[in-house]
Amino acid sequence: MDPVIVVGAGPVGLALSLALADQGVPSVVLDEGPGKEEPRPARTVVLREDTADLVLRLGCASLHEEGLRWSGWRSVRRKQLVRAVPLGGEDGTVPLPSPVHVPQHALTRGLRSAAGAHELVRLVPFSRLDTLEQDPHGVTAHTRSPGATWWRGSHLVGCDGARSTVRKLLDIRFPGRTAVERHAVAALRAELPWPGEAVLHRSPPWRTGGSEVTARPLPEGVWRLDWLLPPRGELVTPDALITRIRDTLAGWCGETPPYELLDTGVYTLHHRLARRWRSGRAFLAGDAAHLLGALGTQGLDEGLRDAENLAWKLAQAWHQDASELLLDSYQAERRAAVASRLRAADQSLPILRGGAGLRTLVPGSARGHDTLLADGHLGCGPLGAPPSYARSPLSPQRAGAHTPVDTPPGAPVTDVGVTAPDGTSVRLRDRLGRGHLLVVLVAPGTGVWDRRHWLTAGVMPRLVEAVDALPVKAELLVSESYPGATAHTVLLVRPDGYLVAAFDGVRPAELLAAADATRGGAPGTECGRGGTDGEGKAHRHRDSGRGGDGDGTTADDRPGPRGTGRAPGRSRRSRGSDRTADVD
Description:
Blueprint: E1 4-7, H1 11-22, E2 27-30, E3 44-47, H2 49-57, H3 62-66, E4 68-69, E5 72-77, E6 80-86, E7 100-103, H4 104-116, E8 121-124, E9 128-135, E10 138-144, E11 149-153, E12 156-158, H5 165-169, E13 176-189, E14 197-202, E15 212-217, E16 222-229, H6 238-253, E17 260-273, E18 278-279, E19 282-284, E20 290-291, H7 299-320, H8 324-352, H9 366-378, H10 381-384, E21 417-419, E22 425-427, E23 437-442, H11 451-454, H12 460-468, E24 474-479, E25 489-493, E26 499-504, H13 508-518
Parallel strand pairs: 1-2, 1-12, 2-8, 5-14, 12-19, 23-24
Antiparallel strand pairs: 3-7, 4-7, 5-6, 9-10, 10-11, 13-16, 13-17, 14-15, 15-16, 17-20, 18-19, 21-22, 23-25, 25-26
Helix pairs in contact: 1-4, 1-7, 7-8, 12-13
């Protein structure tokens, strides 16, 4: 079968290609740029626990090397400390997990290195998309300048940023709000009073502090400082920014300490949400599908969740075909989750940035406002917590055999220790992203047994038989315990780590029904085809040409029937020279 075409080689596009490769699906990544990242220390991202784990699973070594886990969070108002929150490390001894702060160019470089080393990922620089067509069997794409190349894929995913060409070719609207927040940003190396801790300072007492300034640490004594600017009208000159830096450092340290200025910028944040995230065999992900970032929310977090959600569904379609319901569920789940995040931010902005309207929804005290503002930064509450897919079209019907645990259906599972089929002890999250369901038996005491004994004892033979009978591939794991679960509870977990259902014992019929619901039911005659209709043909061919080969290579640009393949040969690759800076 033809590979999946991924348009855009930012963090989201690269993560998607790696997630597909881990599930045995080849991809071609079309990159407008030269295939290398320009260092921008002031452009950083904050990854929550789930997305940081995903990036590490995909083989991104730079997260450990160039990222920093915060040890704490401080909120200050004027001269008073309002809140100090310790943040947990990887051992989980502190309830609130620590985000990972990393320069975006370092994250992208690490993902690109992992993708370049994978035999199922093909990176193609200088490839600018200008044409996209669909038929019942796949997608044909064309890249231009200076050489013209045709590509053939089973599906296509636009991860090409806020100015997405894929979105425009699919004629999908991108409504929303412009200039929700503006920030002046500086990356510098200095010694501040809170090594390893992030700081949010509201209404700082010095003249140039503005209404809010944050300091977020990076490795090797580097900090990113953000000053909230008025929505419109304030021009930030280099001299004015230097004055802000010196006054802010002096306000925190008593006097301006020595510092090394590494990078500066002014960022404007927009809130937008694409009307549709799927059109036939074409999908949108990351900034091509949504823009957010106000109040500490992280657009890249959501983009990586898009990639993880879509990857296992495309893998199912690529290997075994898939129902339309399974492919449609990507939009149903992810668009609803991001819409909820945007709605929470839009409701909170009048409260936290002044104005009337919703102020009465939150206590008027500084502490109440601080809690709401910290949520987006720390990954809590409506502004920051990982999404739940409780209303997913893939959710099974409630049955009498279902039993409650501390994780509600549709929410991310807790990362507990499990025993794998080969007898090794691993973390549950280590088994995610492999394209199959996970069935976890909670069996206290099995950790001290030899695997040869507990595989043939108690309920295990019946459970093994039930797992083997499922309509999709599943892996059976055993755990000593799970929060809120009693002995012999059976958990069904999706490939992306979300709980499908928990059962009070081995229930073969109910387990099979839940697994069938998770795959969206049996594929029909048109399932997974994504046939073109009025929306499917996004652009007419500008040149005569042919479709590509199953390995991602393409036929040359001689006249020929559209959408046909050709034996691997001497195809020309695009050498376009344009590049956009806002690729996901």
